[in-house]
Design goal:
It is a single chain. The protein has about 200 residues and is an all-alpha fold. It is about 60% helix and about 0% strand. The protein contains eleven helices and no strands. The longest helix is centred in the N-terminal third of the chain and has 15 residues. The protein is globular and about 40 Å long. About 30% of the residues are buried. It binds fe (ii) ion (FE2).
């Protein structure tokens, strides 16, 4: 429920968070992560931007470029998010993903400027699939890029913005048509999510 609330607030296209969680799960599986880590990626994916609840709507919806002060506020959303999920039973697995989803492989990200393998692997995965889904869906200010162009841009950022090894695995999943699209069964997804939270 909270994740869907953020999705409406941020003017993301419908279903972005669910697709992202689904792609993230598949990349985590292909990357050989443990069952628990795969699950953390899935739910970390759904909740990664939950901290945007703490950011002013006017800033989130601002069409033009942000002032430095406004950007500073945006940059706090990973920390807000980690705080919001703290009471969850699985907080220790999900918090590192939420906290580090805007870090970059080259150290140029935020909030901590972590570099390379110091960035938790779940966050490295979410960063790739978030970018891919954002590029391949329509946004109010531009049309979706083709898959080909999205893959080209991921490749260009490989080893700079993103983990090169994970980018390679993801490119293979997409290129060889092994990436399954998200199910349209929201009810089933939500039931699984509630089970995850409360059992
Ligand atoms: Fe974010």
């Amino acid at each position: 429920m909270l994740a869907l609330a953020v999705e409406t607030k941020d003017a993301y296209t419908e279903g972005h968070l669910r697709r992202l969680a689904y792609y993230g799960e598949q990349l985590a599986l292909a990357g050989g992560l443990s069952t628990n880590a795969v699950r953390a990626v899935r739910y970390g994916g759904i909740l990664h931007d939950i901290g945007k609840i703490g950011v002013d709507d006017a800033i989130l919806r601002k069409p033009g470029s942000l002032t430095p002060t406004e950007y500073e506020q945006i940059k706090q959303h990973p920390e807000f998010g980690a705080r919001i999920v703290a009471p969850m039973r699985f907080a220790s697995e999900i918090q590192p993903i939420i906290l580090a989803h805007h870090e970059r492989w080259d150290g140029g990200g935020y909030p901590r400027g972590l570099q390379g393998a110091d960035i938790p692997i779940g966050a490295r995965i979410i960063s790739i699939v978030d970018a891919f889904d954002a590029m391949t869906t329509d946004r109010p200010y531009r049309q979706a890029l083709s898959r080909q162009e999205a893959l080209r841009r991921l490749q260009a950022g490989s080893g700079v913005q993103w983990d090169a090894h994970l980018v390679e695995i993801f490119l293979n999943l997409v290129t060889y048509d092994k990436l399954f699209l998200a199910s349209s069964d929201l009810k089933q997804d939500m039931e699984e999510f509630m089970q995850f939270l409360f059992t």
